[in-house]
Amino acid sequence: MSVIRRNRIAIGLAAGLAVVLGLGVWSATSGGTNSKPVAQTETDLGVLGDYGDVGQAPVLQEPAAAPQTPVQQQAPETPAAQPAAQPPAAAPVSSLKLVGKAVDKMGMVVQDGDGRTMYRFDKDTPKPEGKSNCNGQCATTWPPLLSDTIPQVEGIDSNLVSLITRADGKKQVAIDGWALYAYSQDPKPGAWKGQGIGGTWFVIQPSGKRNVECLPPGVTAPAA
């Protein structure tokens, strides 16, 4: 074979080999830009294979949930305090006071809170309901002991004390049905200048009876 022919054959084989090698390299590097290099893929598979999870999708851990804040329970509402029940109004207390006591010469008498001597009028009607027959000018000279409430008593049986209604509608204090009066001419507390006047006016005792222990000259004690 001539030298020229051998050279042509060698060149042709070299060219063919070069084409084959070129195609091999191109096919190895043209698998796509997203393919992993072989060495890296093998490394990853080798690591996963050590734990028996080759080919399993990686498990993604969800972020830890924030701890729930416990709901604070509201204290039950305290019911509004109800106003305390008011006690029934007490009966009015009289500022008036009656005192049964013994005094010199006269013995047992009744005085008001100011020390004035109390009298009874024999022309009044004590039973069945007390009635005063001293009105007009009589009531000016002999002021009736008026009160809308039973007075406080000391030294007197409270069961004997009552109120009667006068002709003008006012209430007058009475002992055993006998209306009580003061005397406008008594000069001072404790005096009894009204004793025996007209033979009908007498100092009253805590029992309601007339007091005849000490009578002015010329006055005779009633029979009863």
Describe the protein in words:
The chain has 224 residues and is α+β, with helices and mostly antiparallel strands. 20% of the residues lie in helices and 15% in strands. It has helices at residues 3-29, 38-49, 137-141; strands at 97-103, 107-112, 119-121, 152-154, 161-165, 171-175, 178-179, 201-203. Strands 2-1-4 form a three-stranded mixed beta sheet, with no helix packed on it. β1 (97-103) and β2 (107-112) form a beta hairpin. The protein starts with a helix and ends in a 21-residue tail after the last strand. The relative contact order is 0.13. Mean pLDDT is 77; it is low at 25-60.
Element layout with pairings:
Blueprint: H1 3-29, H2 38-49, E1 97-103, E2 107-112, E3 119-121, H3 137-141, E4 152-154, E5 161-165, E6 171-175, E7 178-179, E8 201-203
Parallel strand pairs: 1-4
Antiparallel strand pairs: 1-2, 3-8, 5-6, 6-7
